[in-house]
Design goal:
Blueprint: H1 2-10, H2 12-20, H3 24-32, H4 41-52, H5 54-61, H6 68-82, H7 86-90, H8 100-114
Helix pairs in contact: 2-4, 4-5, 4-6, 5-6, 6-8
């Protein structure tokens, strides 16, 4: 019985879709009661997924409606892939608001470009 549920945990798209259903306002209210700041679960899941399959996770990223959650997920996704594929990561810069996170990403992309990026996708 446990092994039948294990397959569900491996289906990142299914879980990402489920997490996307968590209202960002509800999530922000919940994390405000915690001693440390958490990110929306879809941001973490997308980052993990990007390490395994950058193309599929990139396609799924487009499902997130415009707003703070999409900005956070896009930044995390681009940060995750920047070392391996700086050009793909750079393609997301225009979608991000001017924040310190975006500035750090620009630096990471430039560093990856200098080292050639491994182009693993």
């Amino acid at each position: 019985e446990l092994s039948s549920h294990r397959g569900d945990l491996d289906d990142r798209k299914k879980w990402a879709d489920w997490f996307l259903g968590i209202d960002p306002g509800d999530w922000n209210s919940w994390i405000a009661t915690r001693p440390q700041r958490f990110k929306h679960p879809v941001v973490h899941m997308l980052s993990d997924w990007a390490r395994e399959d950058a193309a599929a996770s990139s396609s799924w990223l487009e499902k997130i409606p415009p707003g703070q959650l999409r900005d956070e997920a896009t930044l995390e996704y681009a940060w995750t892939i920047a070392d391996r594929d700086p050009e793909r990561a750079a393609g997301y810069l225009d979608q991000l608001p001017a924040t310190s996170g975006k500035q750090r990403l620009v630096g990471k992309i430039e560093e990856a470009r200098q080292h050639g990026g491994s182009q693993v996708r």
